[in-house]
Amino acid sequence: MDIRQLKYFIEIAETESLSQAARNLFVTQPTLSLALKKIESDLNTKLFSHTEKPFQLTATGEVLYQKGQTVVELFDGLVQEIHTMELTTQKETIRLGLTTLFSIQFMDQLAEFIIKNPNVELNIRQEGSAKLQRLLVDNTIDIALLSFPNHETDKVAIEPLETTTKGYTVYVVVPEKNPLSKKDALTFSDLKDQTFASLTKDFMIGTMLTERARAHGYEPNITMYHNDLQVLLYSLLKSNAICLLPIEYKSMIDIKGLKWIPLKDKYSHYSIGIGLRKDHVCSKAMNDLIAMIKKN
Predict the structure, then answer these.
(1) What is the pTM of this model?
(2) Residues 14-41, buried b or exposed e (16+ Cβ, 10 A)?
(3) Which of these, 18, 140, 184, 287, is most buried using a 10 Å CB contact count?
């Protein structure tokens, strides 16, 4: 006897009719008849009496009916609990956007979050901070670790980070054969006649180069745009161009023949923060991720 057959028996007992039970269970009468015979054979007893009217429970049938209802309820409850557990253990997906620099600087915190949250799938997308703000607006990502300023103030809120990593500082990367390499510090006025290789405007520095050069009265001569750090740096050696990059990159990829010189400008430092859409409601897992990032 299995749970399905037990359910058949209970339905027959309650309806006192094989045909009605078959309709209620959406099965054929022969199916119910065979199931009933199988149960009676397994238990070696008659479950129904037909002397006065059809399908009256015998003494053993009454016991099976009463106890069987409890068994069916427990079984159905168990199945429901398992289904509920399956739903609650399905992985939540968090779409995190951050720059290449921040992915390295906050790798310990991200790795710890992944280890402690096996039911969360962290999808990481690396882009420049300007593009990350647009991705938040478009609902392409849920949360971003990015730098100020906020260009999407109507829809995006950025909470400043008070961690050991508070931001990054822009330096000028110059080939040693370039006369500027002799300088201890540089201003945008010093860069007027230079050729630039630059990050695109997906990055704050890409926008900053054009805006600050124009503020100093010239249009920067940008001969190449690229968002790959190594491509940019190695191109400088071939072209004698210069580029603006966070000094924090230097410890990650220090190429011989290049000098990193401080840029003296009021916009040479960028603070960073956690960006969210203003209408976004954070799940517990997202709040845990934010808390983990703040441990940096």
Answers:
(1) 0.66
(2) ebeebeebbeebeeeeeebeebbeebbe
(3) 18
